[in-house]
Amino acid sequence: MDENLENPGRYLIAKLNAFMRTTSGSDDAINEMASRRVAYADRGQDIISEGDEPRTVNLLLDGWACRYKMMEDGRRQILAFFLPGDLADLHVYILNAMDHSIAAITPIRYARLAPKEFEEISDAHPKLLRALWWESLVTGSIQREWLVSVGQRDALESVAHLACELFLRLKTVGLVQGQLCDFPLTQLDIADALGMTQPHVSRTIAELNRTGYVILRRGQLEVKDLERLKKLAAFNPNYLHHLRDE
Hints:
Elements: H1 3-6, H2 10-16, H3 24-34, E1 38-41, E2 46-48, E3 57-62, E4 65-70, E5 76-82, E6 87-88, E7 101-104, E8 108-113, H4 115-124, H5 126-151, H6 155-172, E9 176-177, E10 180-183, H7 187-194, H8 198-210, E11 214-217, E12 219-223, H9 226-233
Antiparallel strand pairs: 1-8, 2-7, 3-6, 3-8, 4-5, 4-7, 9-10, 10-12, 11-12
Helix pairs in contact: 4-5, 6-8, 6-9, 7-8
């Protein structure tokens, strides 16, 4: 059987283990919760749109997604990238209406989790509640770091910083093979995340690839020298709060 289907919460479990060691009981509870109300979305499809009433928390099981805002003139600002194991977002169901949208970047599989399920799992596994709060706080710290990129880092630093972040987040959940990981973002996705134009992103990626520290191409990221890439990006992984960086 496909391990992702047999253990649908495996990426969330791997991420939480970066903060605290989960137990077999809590792992079973996460897997059971993640197997309920599984849904699918195609590339570019919203799983929830601005103005919708949020009733569930969406746990990404496979694929990549993003949080974004649309301007009236059609411009898009990407606010976050969601990777397998990410919750989008843990407490969003307390809102009356969404103030942003969440869309699939690739075909995705996700679980629609009910608030009551989090209450039940927290009551049964109290230590897990702390880990889930950690997950929520890390999401906020990533958002702050993105704001620094948009406001202060130059183009090369910003793209290099994003590559470092995504590589380490994927490594934490076991989705890096040696120096390689999937990287399905388009140049337009990167531009909309970093507040750049697509031609500027294209030139910056070419400049970044010329350093030899990393090879960033459509569909794949190869990090050849992580330490030098970090130095180039002025990347400090502390904002990821205990994510493994070995």
